[in-house]
Amino acid sequence: MKTEDQAAVLERQAVVLNMFAGLLRADYSRSFTGDSKQYLEVAVQYIRRHLDSRVTPVELAELCHLSVPHFRRMFRRHTGHSPMEFILVERISGAKSLLIRGASIKQAAQEMGFADRFLFYARVQENRRTNSRSIYRRRP
Fold first, then answer.
1. In the chain, N or C terminus with fewer CB closer than 10 Å?
2. Are the C-beta atoms of 99 and 105 separated by less than 8 Å?
3. 64-107: per-residue pLDDT in tens?
4. Residue ranges of domains in the chain
5. Which of 50, 91, 80, 83 is nearest to 64 (CA)?
């Protein structure tokens, strides 16, 4: 095969591969650009599955294929909380459930990703979402 023929074949292959790549990119981005609630729900579910680990707004923005500032604005509109506030509210809510079911404060704090029970107390008091462990233990 002549060098010119090989170059033409390679050029045609490159054009076809570029077309496929464009189709794949369009198909992938379409799943996130349709309804903003759809990809923000992906972030909410991710947070709920990873309450025991450190989740950052940067990580969540990448998951949603958005810039961090845009993600923060959209997330606040969707949930009424900033990403970090939402994570904290979800952790406290999970800890409440564990306390109601009889877990110790130390266990609840560890399972919900708090460094220790003292940090858990501090966060609860800051948000004023709860009063004390005894209130949750008394509830049915």
1. C
2. yes
3. 888 999 999 999 998 999 999 999 889 888 988 988 999 888 88
4. 1-33, 85-138
5. 83
